[in-house]
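During the reporting period the student researcher (J.K.) took over the structure-prediction task from the postdoctoral fellow and processed the backlog of single-chain submissions. One of the processed entries is reproduced below for the supervisory committee.
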Amino acid sequence: MYIEALAYLTCPRDPEAPLELERGVRLAADGELLAGRLRCPACGARYPIDGGIADLLGPRALPDSIVQVTNFLPPIAWGYERAWRPRALTLLSGEPFGYARELPLIVGLAAPERGGLCVDVACSNGLYARALARAQGGAAGHVIGVDHALPMLRQARAFARAEGLRISYVRARAQALPLASGAAAVVAMGGSLNEIGDIDQALRELRRTLASSGRCAMMCLAQSETGPGRALQGALGLGGVRFPPLDALNRRAAVAGLRLRSQWRYGVVVVSLLTR
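J.K. obtained the following structure tokens:
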């Protein structure tokens, strides 16, 4: 975590209470906060920074489903972006859909070069966070990756540091983002909406944290339009993965206060641009 993140981070118990850095932190050569504590002046809660990651959940925050349990396994976190993620959208969409196609689409919708705070929600290995940080360039602002699984965050941090990118990683839930209302110029989410549990609360949090001129770039998976596809999705649903019909998902986003600006569908893969 970097000092730039302190301008944006708030207590997950009180999203309007900014977190403060306590004395006695340990810094890396590039200024990254490696170890220390954050404190909420409103409620007194204290949160550790360990290994460069701010943990705002603590040891009692357990996964809610089978699919979430897998994200807590270090081998899965290590192999996610090395083995599965580069091939995932090609397999799911039925057409070539590698990073060279996906990342320019997400970055183009998000427009991080405008500056400000960019947040990769439920970031896993931080794929979108790194793409946003590269595109942000010299614009004033910062990129924060948020996820509930420490193994995923540790791998995300390792990837970012290997590229020399200043990205802060924070352990928190998508349903309780540790950010003030209207703080984010960009919110991005890549496929995680299908497995994070309470979709409606996550959508409300995305809307709450977006600035009035902010952009939400999202990739998610919709209900299949074929019988075999729906059968497979039904089996995956037993592990906690949800595939809502696209029209129903768009209605839920609208109820949460998000306005659909553009949308593309490739098989079950859906890419959307939403605003407040």
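The committee noted the following: The chain has a mean pLDDT of 93.
J.K. will present the remaining backlog at the next meeting.
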